[in-house]
Design goal:
Length: about 170
């Protein structure tokens, strides 16, 4: 658990308080726009893939230590759960939006659901069904929120903030 918290805190600090993080979010929103702003997109993508593979290797080592063997099939079938966690945490499948803390919250929610189903002795196939159902509901909720934001012309947190603030008169004459 301490290693998970270390990775989450490092990710939050890296993505939200550095130029690298702002560039990463910009790259997720629009690769061509990020390129046009002068960011070396290919170099940044290589750094992102290197970091991703490092964390995947780290996760593989932790999985190997947990099950006490080097079975290459140990993580198969977890893809749906990973996607459900990330979407449940607030990330969009289109990219450009999402937070490390949201993903951490998604991990906690899905972990509690999975532990509850295990405690209730629900078979593994039904647990995957519940995970898929959570994924579908999260994607639907995200799509509805995006559609509502798209109707007003503003998307994301800034649009929601603008809509919630009182309207100020533009003419001061």
């Amino acid at each position: 658990m301490a290693l998970l918290l270390l990775v989450v805190i490092t990710g939050v600090l890296l993505l939200h308080f550095t130029r690298f993080g702002r560039t990463t979010f910009a790259l997720g929103s629009s690769r061509s726009t990020t390129y046009l702003t002068g960011v070396p997109v290919r170099r940044h993508l290589v750094l992102l893939y290197a970091g991703n593979s490092t964390l995947a290797g780290f996760g593989g080592l932790l999985m190997m230590a947990r099950i006490a063997s080097g079975d290459p099939r140990a993580g198969s079938g977890l893809e749906l759960a990973v996607i459900a966690v990330v979407v449940l945490g607030g990330a969009t499948l289109a990219g450009g939006r999402g937070t490390v803390t949201g993903t951490f919250a998604g991990v906690l929610v899905l972990g509690v659901v999975s532990a509850s189903l295990t405690f209730l002795q629900v078979p593994g196939a039904f647990q995957s069904l519940v995970s898929g159902g959570i994924l579908v509901l999260a994607v639907l909720a995200t799509a509805v929120a995006e559609r509502r934001a798209g109707r007003t012309g503003d998307t994301g947190w800034s649009g929601a903030l603008r809509r919630s603030l009182p309207r100020l008169s533009r003419s001061r004459s």
